[in-house]
Amino acid sequence: MTPWLSTMPEPVQKARASLPAGLLITLGLVIGVTLAILQDVNTIDAWSYCSNLAPQVSNDIANTGQVWLGSLLLRLFVYTVGFLMGAGIAWPSCRRRSLAVRVVAGCALGLMICALAFWSDYALNNGMAHGFYLPSRCPGGRPPWWPIWLPLRVSGRCAGELCNGT
To answer: Are 100 and 23 in contact (CB under 8 A)?
Structure first.
């Protein structure tokens, strides 16, 4: 225990000790909501870009269940738990460090786990299942901004009305 905590009354010590846990839980929820919404927006934007259609139209054509309330809630849960899991792993491993170092290490590991989950979700759900994309915009169904060395489930063979136009 730090010296300044030992001079405080016990209820204040307990309140100060629980502050980082409450902060991490709140931060985990905020990060979870933010990443869940961004995941849906990025998927729809990729479909819209590759098909050169309005987001609502491309979502109606390509949507195979990747964007709906259930997936949003599932992503919220996964990102929040992933962040808290990272913070929970880092917390005991930094036991002899200061509180600030433990919080920063927990946040960093939690964000790394969230980034891995975000990439995995995007890689699995980005492709337009029915092949509605413009080959000139997304060759082989792969958006041009996605690094070639990262795996990605690409769209099916170009089979839609858009394949004739480039």
So the answer is: no
